[in-house]
Amino acid sequence: MKRWAGLCVGLAAGVAAAAGFDYRLAPRAVADGVYAFVGLTEDFSEANGGNIVNTGFIVGDGGVVVIDTGPSLRYGRQMREAIGRVTPQPVALAIVTHHHPDHFLGGQAYDAAATGALAATRDGIATDGNAFAENLFRLTGDWMKGTEVVVPGRTLAGGRLEVAGRRLRLLELAGHTGADLAVYDETGGVLFAGDLVFNDRAPTTPHADPARWLAALDTLEAITREPGFRALVPGHGQVAGDAAPIRRTRAWLQWLQRTMDEAAQAGLDINEVLARPLPPEFAGLPVAASEFRRSVGHLFPAAERAALGGER
User: Fold this and answer.
1) Rounded to whole angstroms, how far apart are CA atoms 3 and 9?
2) Against a cut of 0.85, is the pTM above it?
3) DSSP class of residue 240?
4) Burial label, 206 (beta-carbon count in 10 A; 0-12, 13-18, 19+)
């Protein structure tokens, strides 16, 4: 009876949170002046409102640098309120790491002129943003109320950037999408890897190029070996103090690509590939089964073309 009562209380609390559309964003201190908001390791749903993403911010002497703006206008506003509880400093720059919707649809809460992304990311948001937003409306419902696409007004590129009194290294990479921006705060020793790195959650692959992604992971892992490195903030999953999430992401991608290639060379059809079991090392990962199914759809056609002597 007590267990049932506890379950009812938990469900009631969840319903209440959803009814108030409260993301309950609580900044976690990662290093001196560096904070992260850590999302759930789930798929999008009305229950979580799209709060499955990691975002963050860096406080400098001259302002705040935001890393990704979240999945909705509500999220972006609540993120700004949470930042305001930590510091009165203004936002000097909001960086969008790539063009997937959970990373940029909170952009209305920020000044577009102070929001930046790689050129290809800005183009992707302009081209695909409305379709992404419509899909999140379908998946998360009224959490998305009032959300509209805002294209970042500033074009960023790889290299060092001094902003708000912090030394940032912008890493222009690709693989998860055609344009992935990782941000290393050299002042605090914190690497924001975006969705190039997933920690204890199966990676998503709708725009993936596994070969380029694996190369990007090598670049990121090299940073974790530099003197002064303190923490890694993945795009999804818990913050880490070492390169373990990079190695796990690499292992998943290598297994995934190997599975696609072997199945294509064996002449299997897509249904036979979908029926393959997950290996024990990945079977317990959150959303592994569903992400594997999606990845077969994303990647197997290219593997079939390669098996037939064509290009991926």
Assistant:
1) 10
2) yes
3) B
4) exposed
Strand-by-strand arrangement of the 34-37 sheet:
28-31, 34-37, 55-60, 63-67, 91-95, 115-118, 154-156
- Banded model confidence at residue 310, pLDDT cuts 50, 70, 90: low
Which residue has 């880490």 as its token pair?
240
Instruction: Give dist(CA 312, CA 302) in Å, integer.
Output: 5
Instruction: Report the pLDDT value the prediction gives residue 13, as an integer from 0 to 100.
Output: 36
Q: Where are the alpha helices (DSSP H) in 20-118?
A: 73-86, 101-104
Strands, DSSP E only, in the chain? 28-31, 34-37, 55-60, 63-67, 91-95, 115-118, 154-156, 159-163, 166-173, 180-185, 190-198, 231-236
- Which one-letter amino acid corresponds to residue 275? A
SS3 148: coil
Nearest to 257 by CA among 309, 214, 227, 311: 214
- Compute the chain's Rg from CA coordinates: 20
- Reading the block at residue 33, the tokens are 């002046």
